[in-house]
Amino acid sequence: MKFQKVKSTTISDTVAEEIKQRILIGDLIAGNKLPPERELAEQFNVSRPSIREAINKLQAKGFIRKVPGGGNYITDDLGASFADPLLELFANDKNAAFDILELRFAVEALSAYFAAKRATKAQKENMQEKHDFLLKMHKEGGYEQEAKADVAFHMSIAEASNNPAIVHLMRNLLNVLEVTISSYFHESTDNKNVRLPNEHSEILEAILNNEPILARERMKFHIAGIEKRIAELRYEESHNSEDLSRKDNLTLISDETQAYLLENTKK
Q1: Taking burial as the number of CB atoms within 10 A of a residue's CB, which of 92, 218, 253, 256 is the most buried?
Q2: Phi and psi at residue 248, in whole multiples of 5°?
Q3: Does the pTM exceed 0.90?
Q4: What is the distance in angstroms between the CA of the first residue and the CA of the last residue of the chain?
Q5: How far is CA 54 from CA 11, 34, 45, 192, in A?
Q6: How far apart are CA 184 and CA 190, in angstroms?
């Protein structure tokens, strides 16, 4: 019988792993500055050299970037290698918007479901704050400002799912989501996206009330509706039947689900 070798773990390895996990689950946000070494040393109850070594390891792995004289920051391009090809696809393929919506349909439905089950009080407050700012941008901001606020709201839901894989995937999609949502707003007219604020509010309500199934179905309804509106808008401009080909691709809400939504949505 053979035994596996025991891998020794240094203090800096432990600290680096803890910081990395905090980044992956969204507690430490891309672009934000890390606390000073002295503060981190106090929080971890370790020496400053151990903190410094941990940060160096995270920098080598691409999680941290050092700004000379400015401190250490969570790198804001963790998803660049994933997002850049998608952005190129979006620019060159008119159906890419639908492809991305299919991905969102799957991931964000789960995101809303788990957020309704697991969100902490602080995460609920964050979602409410992002939602209120989104409503403000819908009324007062331009397309780009509203798109950024829209993405921030959806990202707050992903973070509240407390699933590191979902958070990491959504963070990798940030730039893609901003571009696709902004493009949708550009395509729409004022009366075409009037339902979006209501749909966002309904999703948030279900999450805050800890109703996971309702939150999941409302998110599915929201994203399927975007797909349908994009297809209809394109058809209005082109009168090409091919532009309607994916109109009902995500409208997979069964009679049972429709009944559930009607029964559980407050009048």
Answers
A1: 218
A2: -110, 20
A3: no
A4: 67
A5: 8, 12, 14, 50
A6: 12
Characterize 171-194 residue by residue with b for buried, 16 or more Cβ atoms within 10 angstroms of its Cβ, and e for exposed.
bbbbbbbbbbbbbbbebbeeebbe
Domains defined for the chain, CATH in brackets: 11-74 (1.10.10.10), 80-264 (1.20.120.530)
Report, in angstroms and rounded to the nearest whole number, the Rg of the chain calculated over CA atoms: 21
Supply 265's token pair.
């949505």
With cut-offs at 50, 70 and 90, classify the pLDDT of residue 266: low
Length of the chain (residues): 267
pLDDT in tens, 212-260: 999 999 999 888 888 888 787 777 776 777 666 666 666 655 455 666 6
Structure tokens at 102: 């299919």
Two tokens at 136?
């403000």
Helix H, strand E, coil C: the string for the chain is CCCCCCCCCCHHHHHHHHHHHHHHCCCCCCCCECCCHHHHHHHHCCCHHHHHHHHHHHHHCCCEEEECCCEEEECCCCCHHHHHHHHHHHHHCCCHHHHHHHHHHHHHHHHHHHHHHHCCHHHHHHHHHHHHHHHHHHHHCCHHHHHHHHHHHHHHHHHHCCCHHHHHHHHHCHHHHHHHHHHHHHHCCCCCCCHHHHHHHHHHHHHHCCCHHHHHHHHHHHHHHHHHHHHHHHHHHHCCHHHHCCCCCCCCCCHHHHHHHHHHCCC
State the burial class of residue 257 (Cβ atoms within 10 Å of its Cβ: 0-12, 13-18, 19+). middle
Backbone angles phi, psi at 211, to 5 degrees: -115, 85
